[in-house]
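Batch job 17 of 40 flagged for manual review because the log was empty.
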Amino acid sequence: MEVDGVLVAAHELKEPLAVLRQLAFALPEMERAGEQIRREMVEVSERAIRQVNDLTKIHRLEKQECEMGPVVVRVVCDEATNEVMRLFDEKKQRITVSYRNRAKIVTANRELLRSVIFNFLTNAIHYADEGTETQVSVMDSCGLVRVAVRDYGPMLPTDVWREMRRGFIKQPTSIAMRPGSSGLGLYIASRFSQAMRARVGAVRHRDGTSFYVEVPVSKQMSLWG
C-alpha cells in the first residue's frame, strides 16, 4: 500500500513538472537576469522529474529483482558527479573526489548506484555556500566499497540518523532541521540500496553529515586486474 500510494503521487506530480519544464524552454530570449531564472526553472523541474521517475522504479523493484553485475565504481561515481557539476559551478561551489579504494569492481546495478550517489550530491548542494567544497570519497571498508558524500548542513535529526544507521528509511519524510533537504532523496537512496543488497548510512559531524552507500566487492574483481 505504501509503494502504491507513492506511485500514484509520482504520476500526479510528473505531468505538471513536465509542463513547467516545457514552458521554461518555450520562453523567448530574455535579459541576463531573466535567463538565469529560466535556467533555474529547467534545473528544478528536471531534478524533480528525475525523482518522480525514481519513485516509479521503486514500484517496479517491488515486483522483480534488479539486474546485478560487475560495475567499475569509480566510473559510476564520475558519472554522478559530472551530472551535478553544472549546478555546483553556477553556485560557485566545488566538488572534490578522493579515490582511496583498492577494490575497483563492485557488484551492483549501475543505474541504481548512480542514482544513489546523485541523490546524496543534490542534497549537499543546499548546504554549500559560495566558495565551499563538497567532498566525495571512495574507500575500501571490510570487504565493501564505501562511497560517501560530506555536506556541511545542520545536524541530522536523531531519528533519521538512526534509520540511516539501520540502512533503511521506511518512508519519505521531511527533515525540519534541514530545510530544503530531500528526505525523499534519502528514501530513494535507501530503497535502491536495499534492492542491490547494499546499504546506506550516515555519520554525523559537528558541522554536517556524511551520507554513504556500501557496495559488495565483485568476485570477478581479479579478472579486471
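Reviewer: the log was empty due to a logging misconfiguration, but the result itself is present. The helical segments are 2-26, 32-61, 73-90, 110-125, 158-166, 183-195. Unflagging and moving on to job 18.
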